[in-house]
Amino acid sequence: MDVLDKIDRKILEILAQDGRITVTELAKQVGLSKTPCQLRMKKLEDAGYITGYGAILDPERLGEGHIAFVQVTLSDTRSEALNAFNEAARQIREIEQCHMIASHFDYLLKIRTRDMANYRKVLGEKISALPHVAQTSTFVVMEAVKDRG
């Protein structure tokens, strides 16, 4: 599947908003019957446009409402060091997102914790202990204005 048409894009848009929608309702919203809609969904899954389905959880209700973004600068940016950092970062539950950045720092992390005290512990015991970390800088979120989940 090389090119997405407007129906494929509409299917993806609707599923991104409501992954639990029935195929019958999805087909109705995109103007198809059920079987062609199912076939398109299967093609989108097989082609990797849809990588999975899951529940969007409320971090506040789960006691993880504190968000901080952390700039990380490494002491070594050769491939071996980057790979070691990447693998270790994937193992830390509190790191919700980890992005390598083209900037004056190397990584931007989104960290979710219970509160500031818990964040300080995660920063001191986990993030600072990641391979090749030379420096970190924290930005605490005061309010999430838009978050895709």
TrEMBL record:
One of its GO terms (biological process) is regulation of DNA-templated transcription. This is Transcriptional regulator, AsnC family. Residues 4-65 form the HTH asnC-type domain. Signal peptide: none annotated. It comes from Cohaesibacter gelatinilyticus. GO terms for molecular function: sequence-specific DNA binding. InterPro entries: ArsR-like_HTH (IPR011991), AsnC-type_HTH_dom (IPR000485), Dimeric_a/b-barrel (IPR011008), Tscrpt_reg_AsnC-like (IPR019888), Tscrpt_reg_AsnC/Lrp_C (IPR019887), WH-like_DNA-bd_sf (IPR036388), WH_DNA-bd_sf (IPR036390). Keywords: Activator, DNA-binding, Transcription, Transcription regulation. SUPFAM superfamilies: Dimeric alpha+beta barrel, Winged helix' DNA-binding domain. The lineage of its organism: Bacteria, Pseudomonadati, Pseudomonadota, Alphaproteobacteria, Hyphomicrobiales. GO terms for cellular component: cytosol. PROSITE patterns: HTH_ASNC_2.
